[in-house]
Records
---
Amino acid sequence: MSLSPKIENFVLHCGEMGSRWGFNRTIGQMVALLVIHEQPLTANEIAESLKISRGNVSMGIKELQSWQLVKVTHIPGDRKEYYAPNGSIWDLANRVFEERRKREVDPTLTLLRDQILEGGNSPEEEYANNQIQTIHDLLETITKWSAELQRLSPEQLQTLMKLGSSVSKVIDLKDKLLKKS
Amino acid sequence: MSLSPKIENFVLHCGEMGSRWGFNRTIGQMVALLVIHEQPLTANEIAESLKISRGNVSMGIKELQSWQLVKVTHIPGDRKEYYAPNGSIWDLANRVFEERRKREVDPTLTLLRDQILEGGNSPEEEYANNQIQTIHDLLETITKWSAELQRLSPEQLQTLMKLGSSVSKVIDLKDKLLKKS
DNA sequence: TTAAAGTTTCAATAATTACTGAAACTTTAG
DNA sequence: CTAAAGTTTCAGTAATTATTGAAACTTTAA
């Protein structure tokens, strides 16, 4: 399976970006390949298209499954496994976002909680405790907010996103409503 | 300069998380150290506290400056440079967020725009073009939205964040208002 | 000026992370 | 049951990324 120049371009770019998105080059390329192809692909097709080893594909699939980004399908009368993106583009983006929050925010939140409980002993640590509390509160807000977004339906999210520059107006509106009641 | 166990814990943790936040261990530790200390620190103090080389500190500072996370200060009668966080915790988080968007989203947006302009030649590429368009639209929405958030004042952001579960109510409200007018 | 204090650069090297490919394992058709 | 088809694992190695430390550079006080 060789790729058209345009598709190859796209796949290579996603490979380069891969490490910035939280995985590695190979895995970036794999997601791109699966997303850009309407039909599911076999592990061998992936290896051949990307010119990487079969073992590497296997490890990549495993990693992608841990991110819940791929699903396995089968074609009747064919025992090979076929891989496809697990949901719409939007679903995939959502999962990456969520997974990254888990890896980038949650462990810190846990540590900070513990440190806050410890309290400040020496007076020299007063400032440090304050800073830790501030960071904690910020991260907790981000966590709650992102959980909130996850709960919205795609349509609601679209609406929210499209609010654009009127976000601040909505906030003002909310304020006024709260004051009245 | 040696660190108290609690502060050392915090600094080491931020080091481990560093690579997940978009920089490396040393830089993660440096930010943590600067944030946790009320007084600005010299490059030598940083090197000594973190037990890393002077050169490494210099490169780290440079990187942190490219992220706009540190500022240089001077103490009258002392020619050494003192480093401190460039703004509040909130400011720093904001900058990291923004910088990451630039590195993680913008390059892809540029590529996709070009690819969309190229158009689809072979009928086999129809599907690919559709996917590319979808990804493009998603990324553009994210970009616009995040620019929007940047424009809000810290207070407005606080309000927005604290809306929490009432976000969907606000959206509904907006819908109703739009229909009336 | 100049030399002492301070900072940066970068080639060499260490540490980490990713990839290969062959062997081991699993599944299924016959 | 068995052998062919398919998949996974992982030790060895390649590629990448981070760090050191010594030399070069810059700044300033005297």
---
Amino acid sequence: MTTPGRGLHGHVLDTLGPAITAGEYPPGSVLRTDELAQQFDVSRSVMREAVRVLESMHLVESRRRVGVTVRPKSEWNVYDPQVIRWRLAGADRPHQLRSLTVLRSAVEPVAAGLAAKNATAQQCAELTECALGMVANSRGHRLEQYLFHDVAFHRVILNASGNEMFARLGDVVAEVLTGRTHHEVMFEDPDPAAVTLHVKLAEAVREGDAARAEELTREITVGALQELDILAP
Amino acid sequence: MTTPGRGLHGHVLDTLGPAITAGEYPPGSVLRTDELAQQFDVSRSVMREAVRVLESMHLVESRRRVGVTVRPKSEWNVYDPQVIRWRLAGADRPHQLRSLTVLRSAVEPVAAGLAAKNATAQQCAELTECALGMVANSRGHRLEQYLFHDVAFHRVILNASGNEMFARLGDVVAEVLTGRTHHEVMFEDPDPAAVTLHVKLAEAVREGDAARAEELTREITVGALQELDILAP
DNA sequence: TGTGACAAATAAGTCTGACTTTTTGTTCCC
DNA sequence: GGGAACAAAAAGTCAGACTTATTTGTCACA
């Protein structure tokens, strides 16, 4: 998604970040900058920059004479895309996936309602195109192409809502949908009912029917939640 | 809220962050690390750490031979509490406040519904206590005390939902509520209807009535949205 | 005229070592 | 036992030298 490992400090983050978010260092653990620098075979300046980034994510806290202490999970910036990616790649992936899907179920219906009111003609066209793409790839194990249009569809909805907080959840939704297709058991073709819902949703948005758009999206997200319950009850 | 200006690099951030989020440097602007270091009268290492943090917030991008370029608003990590605070302190505060209130209106009802199912006895007690505190301070210009209980109330709801993504929005809600009381025109006592809604909500959660909790919260957030429309139509 | 390779300039990236500051824990004295 | 002085530890800061990637410009050649 984003460029990984840009520079030495990026490489350090790619290792330390996942380790911390995976709970490899329990909260309260104390790390020393110099020690870490040796372990990763980088200079102190590089390690300091990495620590600063982890600190800005509220994963750790750096204090004089003490060291770099790992913060409890409840204080992490769990909306940071980087943190989300690290956690999705780790052990509590199922738990994380559920949290995010619940978030989707709260946000997307409201976003769809707003999109019905605010979407431009251009966005309506894109939406219909995405829905068409989903239909066209809904059978015959064309999961990859289906996913592509599914992600694009939800991105357009979130953007069309006109709310920047919603729009920025596009990446999160993309991660969740991609994760579902790639990592979870999903050999079968997508649920035809879900495909229909997307087509109808594109329609509702185009017609400016906010209430219907909201309700349809609610059905879509309920489906996503049920899917999780089936896979990991 | 969080400790401001910890160390030199923190001080730099406290100046640069607000400046960038306020649009003082339009997207695409190029900054030079050395130049900034001189301006702020700090060493290059300190400035580099600051830039790294801004980079992790996706406010800027650092590239060799080019410099530190400011990214477009659409790429910022708008869920970063620090970024939220900077923007709330800046010029587009009204716009930001609206975005966040819309987010609340999407998330809180669902969170309340979950809270009704998952809240512990302890949390139910806290909720009732907060509601009582709101009632007790709803008249006689005791805005500060009222705010305190209001913030605590919503935090408990979000925590009790059992969803960590919701729980982490507690700070955001606190900022919005605090901002409303302190910065917006709010000389009058809070709307009695809103107070009643909170009392009823505490009741619904205690009784485990998810549907009612959700509906009551929807009414609360609708009220918050209307309030914004009245203040800045 | 266009194009490709090569060279120069530039700004970030990295490393090192010396020094400062804050915090904590200990010890010693009243 | 409590408080003040002291010592140690780790992060914080700085300055300077060096490396590397990227861009831009130039020049020769087709």
